[in-house]
Amino acid sequence: MKKKSLLKKATPLYRQKLPNRKNALNRRRPLCHGSSDNGSCILREEPPELPPQRAMRCVELFAGAGGLAIAASNAGFKHDAVLEYNHDACETIRANQRRGYDLVRHWPLIEGDVHDQDFQTWNGRVDLVSGGPPCQPFSIGGKHGAMGDRRNLFPEAARAVREIQPRAFVFENVKGLLRESFAKYFGYIVLQLSFPRLTLRDGEDWTEQLSRN
After folding, report:
1. List 41, 58, 90, 135, catalytic entry
2. Domain presence at residue 198
3. pLDDT in the model for residue 43
4. Which of 10, 41, 159, 190 lies 20 to 30 Å from 58, alpha-carbon distance?
5. What is the pLDDT of residue 205?
6. Please, which contacts does 152-158 make with residues 24 or more away whose CB atoms are closer than 8 Å?
7. Is 38 inside a domain boundary?
8. How far apart are CA 86 and CA 114, in angstroms?
């Protein structure tokens, strides 16, 4: 007669229920979405809930009738200011606001000279500065005044970037800006926008600043 073993048969670890794991498993229990041909479920975990994101903020310079600003609105930016000097262009924006166009109706439009604007108001509050500085100084069809043309507002664009300190900026202009005759000044524009805190010294012009940097 065989003696009964006094040792209990060991239960495989994979069949054991670990204590205090029920609640942890319930928190990440996958959902069953449909089934396959063999009757098994297709398991997918619920995506984690993300906190609501802050709306991206934008300041638009040299807005004209609002073309580039509309693009920023389409991209999800909310405008803190839309600046334009030309009265007729501002009236175009106002007319579209009165018509209730969703992309422009909440724009805070500022009609005035950009030279008079204090951009410190938006320091640290804006993600993007965008705009199209007047193209006449660099246009192939113009007088090619470039840096000597009073309508050259790239220095004001650089000042806006310096005072607002946005996370990014976008400025557009004409192809004529890339002509060889403007190459040196284009390099100066790049310098200003790359290092906006580098400013002119007293009595210094842009060529002297460019040469020392």
Report:
1. 135
2. no
3. 64
4. 190
5. 78
6. 153/62, 153/114, 154/189, 154/192, 155/192, 156/61, 156/114, 156/115, 157/61, 157/62, 157/129, 157/131, 157/133, 157/193, 158/189, 158/192, 158/193, 158/196
7. no
8. 11
- In the block, tokens 């909310």 appear at 78
Question: Residue 10: helix, strand or coil by DSSP?
Answer: coil
Whether residue 154 has pLDDT greater than 70 = yes
Strand spans (E) along the chain: 31-35, 41-44, 56-61, 77-84, 109-111, 128-131, 168-171
- At 197, the amino acid letter reads R
Residue 42 pLDDT exceeds 50: yes
In a domain, 35, yes or no: no
Answer whether residue 29 is part of any domain.
no
Half-sphere exposure of 78 (CA within 13 A, CB side): 6
CA distances from 174 to 68, 137, 141, 178, 194 (A): 14, 10, 11, 8, 20
Closest CA to 127 of 181, 174, 87, 164: 164
Residue 32 forms beta bridges with which residues?
43
- The question of whether 58 is a catalytic residue gets the answer no
- Number of domains composing the chain: 1
Percent of the chain whose pLDDT exceeds 70: 77
Q: Which of 80-84, 115-119, 208-212 has the lowest mean pLDDT?
A: 208-212
CATH number, residue 171: 3.40.50.150
Domain that holds residue 132: 56-180
Q: What is the mean pLDDT of residues 98-108?
A: 95
